[in-house]
Write a structure and sequence with these properties.
The protein has about 180 residues and is mainly alpha-helical. It is built from 12 helices and no strands. The chain folds into 3 domains: about 80 residues, RNA polymerase sigma factor, region 2, helix turn helix motif (Rna Polymerase Sigma Factor, Chain: A, Orthogonal Bundle); about 30 residues, no CATH class; about 60 residues. Helix 2 packs across helix 4 and helix 10 packs across helix 12. The radius of gyration is 26 Å and the shape is elongated. It holds the Pfam family Sigma70_r2.
């Protein structure tokens, strides 16, 4: 409890001592998670950040710090992994380093590597976007794609030029936002 109070007061040495004390918890969770672009030092730094946050948030009246820190660190590591588990990033997870394969002279792996089909991700991307479009935005998209004309839109659905123009802008914004 004294270490935690010293951390709350901004003492760096107390934080380092607390991290050393909870090294087994950190090591256990580091082995549990993997992120391709993180090396051991990155995980250490993230554990240090999680330890600081846990110490600052810990109230003391609601249980032991060990359990609280374990949960905080686990949640922090999960939040680092979560963005890389989306289907959109699957090719990144399946990619193999050509340099590593050549270095290890394991050319056989190059020929046996899994193929990722980009059409799956493109289809998923479009499904996501289409699900977010309103009726007028879907009609404006059809106009953008050359499927219909402004005159036909006015005749069939009664939307005027200003409404279509605004819907077109919203569609373009949604595509741009989704591609970020």
């Amino acid at each position: 409890m004294e270490l935690i109070q010293r951390i709350k007061q901004g003492e760096d040495e107390a934080l380092k001592t607390l991290v050393k004390e909870y090294r087994p918890v950190i090591e256990r969770l580091k082995r549990k998670y993997y992120r391709r672009d993180y090396d051991l030092l990155d995980w250490e730094q993230e554990a240090l950040i999680a330890c600081y946050i846990a110490a600052v948030k810990f109230k003391g009246a609601r249980g032991r710090f060990a359990s609280f820190f374990d949960r905080c660190l686990n949640n922090h590591f999960c939040s680092l992994i979560r963005p890389y588990m989306t289907p959109r990033r699957k090719p990144y997870l399946l990619a193999e380093s050509l340099d590593r394969l050549i270095e290890e002279e394991d050319i056989r792996l190059i020929h046996e590597s899994r193929r990722v089909h980009p059409e799956y991700f493109i289809e998923e991307f479009y499904d996501e976007i289409f699900a977010s479009l309103t009726k007028i935005e879907a009609i404006a998209l059809a106009m953008l794609m050359g499927i219909t004309s402004p005159e036909e839109i006015y005749e069939k659905w009664g939307y005027n030029d200003d409404q279509i123009q605004h819907a077109r802008w919203r569609v373009q914004y949604k595509f741009r936002d989704a591609l970020k």
